[in-house]
């Protein structure tokens, strides 16, 4: 294939709120450029993960190279598709760093939403050329003019520059492609300079090892060339390289401005670091500015339900971490659950996705403990601790200050639901920061809220309170001192570490009562009485009792000697004694999540 000049290359991404039609627009672009034939075409082609197709969301950023003719010249358009959910903001930031332009996509009915605002400002910060696009103009109830007004007011976009399209019906796709060529600047890289390429993603292939996704900033990389990962300091030979169109298509070389992949037979998962710089081996090329480390918001324990699957779970987590470096894991052990891993995630959806991917791709049956956020504890001796799980909280006598993470939440909703949204935020100890009209009918309110009050079910509650029209986006702004306590759950007098939770002291009694009540209904009755208690330190704040099962062991005795019945009763009594320990109380998987669903119980 003839080498293409940098001035005919355009690198861009699509950013939008979840469900505004990014993947469908990418499909139409692939069709328009002839990258994919009608026969090979399927809906949401770039969402090739089974989980993405099942849930209808984009989880991983995907790259694809398209070629199109414009005014007699052939242009190469490199699209990096991005997820829309707030949990995957890290994926979006990596894509923005590799592009010169971004399509800011907004639904013609739903309008500007919280994630639209966040992504818009993110793209401005990266100095990208913004092409504002309103999608779904074929809908009967579309309100494109109102949405254009919202975009103008909120993001300072000139409505004259907005391209109105319908990705599903294929309306105005040609205008959009022309806009990409005319507005997005070509990459500035020098083909003849020393090699510098940024690693923006990777995935693990069972047979070929790590497949590294790169954007070449300067120079060129060829098959057989020795390259170096600058931060790791490891040297490898390039066995294959190419571009995604959208399948892996091998080429002889990649040069400045192009996006593609490298295969170097890297079997060790630690050797590929997202954000690293690829350079010529044995050169002193400086590293490119990388990405900020992702901030893990939510931590939980993952344990194999069968203890013998521990090594399989470890291998599955290691492979998944090369595909998704935004989660972390480290080994831990629990008295109740045995050996497992403490994992950090960007949010609740991210946690759910990782668990489902482990169960589907690695076929490991998992037990997941109740999620919690990271706290800070300042001890009286001046030491500052990061608390990733409740068991790490020191005794209250050692604590000088207990701090919780605070997030700034932007909530966008129609005007008539603002009261309900404010009430929800105030119930969760929110501090109002601002109120802004996006248009005559839609408002954005901004609150500072404790992260623990946001991550679990605030999104669902907002959706319920606003009949599905409300959206939210949040970012961590720091830690603040709060009156917090650790609630321990005791089953039969033994503390079950996996069920401990950290909450506000004002809520502790209510949370404790609600948790033990819920656990009572989740834990099956045993042959002996099971006491379920909630305690802060040595003070028990709530108790429920799971009544013993009374099996009639003498039902099969019809008449006869009483000694036979006594023998059966004695045997039953000994059995009960043997089973009266934490190991014998069967705590089902759903009991660990029951701790979460107690927010509304008063």
Quick structural overview:
The chain has 602 residues and is α+β, with helices and mostly antiparallel strands. Helices cover 26% and strands 34% of the residues.
Describe it for me?
The chain has 602 residues and is of the alpha+beta class. The chain has 14 helices and 32 strands. The chain starts with 8 loop residues before the first strand and ends in an 8-residue tail after the last helix.
**CATH architecture call of the largest domain:** 3-Layer(aba) Sandwich
Output the structural class: alpha+beta
**Alpha-carbon Rg, integer:** 28 Å
**CATH-assigned homologous superfamily of the largest domain:** P-loop containing nucleotide triphosphate hydrolases
Order the strands across the largest sheet as they lie in space: 11-10-16-7-8-15-12-13
Report the portion of residues in β strands: 25-35%
Total count of helical runs of at least 4 residues:
14
Low-confidence stretches: 44-53, 598-602
Examine the coordinates and then state which fold CATH places here, giving the name of the CATH topology of the largest domain.
Rossmann fold
In which range does the helix fraction lie? 25-40%
Quote the distance from N terminus to C terminus. 68 Å
User: Which class of the largest domain in CATH terms?
Assistant: Alpha Beta
Biggest sheet descriptor: 8 strands, antiparallel
Strand tally: 32
* pLDDT averaged residue by residue: 78
**Shape summary:** globular
Number of domains: 5
């Amino acid at each position: 294939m003839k080498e293409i000049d940098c001035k005919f290359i355009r690198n861009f991404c699509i950013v939008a709120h979840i469900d505004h039609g990014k993947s469908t627009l990418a499909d139409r672009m692939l069709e328009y450029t002839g990258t994919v034939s009608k026969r090979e075409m399927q809906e949401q082609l770039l969402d090739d993960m089974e989980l993405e197709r099942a849930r209808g969301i984009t989880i991983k950023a995907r790259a694809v190279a398209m070629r199109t003719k414009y005014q007699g010249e052939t242009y190469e358009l490199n699209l990096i598709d991005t997820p829309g959910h707030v949990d995957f903001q890290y994926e979006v930031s990596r894509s923005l760093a590799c592009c010169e332009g971004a399509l800011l996509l907004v639904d013609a009915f739903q309008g500007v939403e919280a994630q639209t605002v966040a992504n818009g400002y993110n793209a401005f910060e990266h100095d990208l050329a913004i092409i504002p696009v309103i999608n779904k103009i074929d809908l009967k109830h579309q309100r494109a003019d109102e949405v254009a007004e919202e975009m103008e007011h909120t993001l300072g976009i000139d409505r004259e520059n907005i391209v109105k399209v319908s990705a599903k019906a294929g309306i105005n796709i040609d205008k959009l492609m022309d806009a990409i060529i005319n507005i997005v600047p070509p990459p500035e890289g020098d083909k003849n300079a020393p090699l510098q390429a940024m690693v923006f993603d990777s995935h693990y292939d069972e047979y070929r090892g790590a497949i590294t996704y790169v954007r070449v900033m300067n120079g060129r990389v060829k098959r057989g060339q020795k390259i170096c990962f600058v931060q790791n300091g490891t040297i490898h030979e390039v066995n294959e390289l190419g571009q995604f169109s959208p399948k892996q298509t091998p080429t002889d070389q990649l040069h400045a401005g192009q996006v593609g992949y490298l295969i170097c037979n890297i079997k060790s998962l630690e050797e590929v670091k997202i954000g690293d710089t690829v350079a010529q081996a044995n050169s002193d090329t400086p590293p490119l500015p990388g990405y900020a480390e992702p901030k893990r918001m939510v931590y939980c324990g993952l344990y194999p339900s069968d203890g013998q699957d521990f090594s399989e779970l470890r291998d599955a987590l290691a492979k998944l971490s090369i595909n998704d470096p935004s989660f972390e894991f480290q080994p831990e052990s629990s008295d109740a659950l045995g050996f497992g891993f403490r994992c950090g995630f960007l949010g609740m959806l991210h946690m759910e996705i990782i668990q489902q991917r482990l169960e589907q791709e690695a076929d490991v049956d998992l037990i997941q403990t109740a999620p919690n956020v990271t706290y800070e504890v300042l001890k009286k001796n001046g030491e500052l601790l990061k608390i990733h799980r409740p068991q790490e909280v020191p005794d209250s006598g050692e604590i000088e200050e207990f701090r919780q993470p605070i997030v700034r939440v932007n909530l966008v909703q129609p005007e008539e639901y603002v009261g309900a949204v404010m009430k929800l935020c105030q119930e969760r100890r929110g501090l109002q920061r601002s109120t802004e009209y996006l248009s005559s009918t839609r408002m954005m309110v901004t609150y500072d809220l404790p992260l623990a009050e946001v991550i679990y079910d605030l999104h669902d509650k907002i959706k319920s309170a606003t009949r599905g029209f409300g959206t939210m986006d949040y970012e961590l702004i720091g830690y603040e001192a709060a009156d917090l306590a650790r609630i321990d759950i005791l089953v039969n007098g033994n503390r079950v570490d996996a069920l401990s939770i950290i909450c506000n002291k004002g809520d502790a009694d209510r949370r404790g009562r609600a948790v033990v009540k819920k656990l009572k209904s989740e834990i099956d009755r045993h042959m002996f009485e099971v006491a379920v208690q909630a305690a802060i330190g040595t003070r028990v704040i709530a108790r429920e009792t799971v009544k013993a099962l009374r099996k009639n062991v003498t039902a099969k005795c019809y008449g006869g000697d009483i000694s036979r019945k006594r023998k059966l009763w004695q045997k039953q009594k000994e059995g009960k004694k043997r089973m009266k320990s934490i190991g014998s109380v069967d705590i089902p998987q759903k009991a660990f999540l029951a701790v979460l669903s107690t927010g509304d119980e008063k």
